[in-house]
Amino acid sequence: MCGSLSAVPSDDDSSSSLPPQLPPFDYQPKPYLGPSAEQLNIVEGKMLYLFDESGMQYLDAFAGIVTVSCGHCHPDIVNAITEQNNLLQHATTIYLHHTIADFAEALASKMPGNLMVVYFVNSGTEANELAMLMARLYSGNLGMVALRNAYHGGSSNTIGLTVLNTWKYPIPQGEIYPVVNPDPYHRIFGSNVALYAEDVQDHIDFGSSGKVSGFIAETIQGVGGSVELASGYLKHVYDIVRKAGGVCIADEVQTGFGCTGSHYWGFQTQGVIPDIVTMAKGIGNGLPLGAVVTTPVIASVMAQKIQFNTFGGNPVCSAGGLAVLRVIDKEKRQAHCADIGSHLIGCLRALQERHDSNYS
Q1: What is the pLDDT of residue 6?
Q2: What is the secondary structure of 33-55 as a DSSP string?
Q3: Quick one: DSSP state of residue 155?
Q4: Exposure string (b/e) for 246-273, b if CB count within 10 Å is 16 or more?
Q5: Class of domain 76-330
């Protein structure tokens, strides 16, 4: 039966009108003595549940905006953070600290190909900022190609890569070429990846000098509505962009760390290996943490100047991030995503079949 929530059983037909109830969960939230719900609502979280000031229990189906990858206040992650907090709260990548190195090494071990150099930052926006800087320095070009309907951040630079007007302010946005996103359901070319790739080539041929710095894409557009790219699209476009002198950036802020179920990284569903990978959100289970992973050759351009982030690679966040990687493996979270995701898709398809006749 689809869905884990069900109405409370009853001897009469009135049960069908009752709201669904959450399954039993052996946890009692602590008494809350803070502001009322008029000022604040959610006051505590435990694994997949949230609690308001009255102790009301909610299922966090949105995972704190696709961030809480291992559950609220997971004991392994909380313990790692607490232990590190008691030893050393702050250090930077200017100084040697084993926690930062351990996390970087563990993260690099999850990457395919020659993606082995790790830079730590505080958010997905910062990660995309740094990736764009790397692309421009390495290629010697300025123009970036981004997909329409994409979200890559809201800073003064990444707002240009975000091709959704609800997130954009009327400021200069640099040399950004917004190409048609390969949405097989809503875009003009359907599932024809060759035509979408031709649109990218046209932008390079007619909208640029013929050279670009890079191409950035989410494998599944998150803020844009969970839009999965047409199969095979990235293979076509990566080839075009590299021939134009650019590098290929995979934004894994919402699709990394086993979220797709079938693969650890979203770009693997398209059978490609990018030149730069950005990540955040689920990397820290709620900690302010992001990362950029790239190749030694591309990373070498950063040696021209000092690359430094005061809080990027903070030992507390690094300890938490390393604990997240271990929990994902230990608890087989990727397989869990595959199981739950398949179940949910099956339920949605059943609804589609049931209601399809209502639409023309």
Answers
A1: 42
A2: -S--TTT--EEEEEBTEEEETT-
A3: S
A4: bbbbbbbbbbbbbbbbebbbbbbbbebb
A5: alpha beta
Bridge partners of residue 214, in order along the sequence: 144, 247
Which residues belong to CATH 3.40.640.10 in the chain? 76-330
C-alpha to C-alpha distance for 164 and 172, rounded to whole angstroms: 15
How many C-beta atoms lie closer than 10 Å to residue 99's C-beta? 22
CA-to-CA distance for 175 and 42, rounded, in angstroms?
Answer: 41
Count CB atoms within 10 A of the CB of residue 312. 25
pLDDT over 70 percentage in the chain:
93
| d(C-alpha 144, C-alpha 206), whole Å | 14
Residue-wise pLDDT tens digits, 96-140: 899 999 999 999 999 999 999 999 999 999 999 999 999 999 999
C-alpha span between 246 and 141 (Å, rounded) = 8
Mean pLDDT for 14-30 is 80
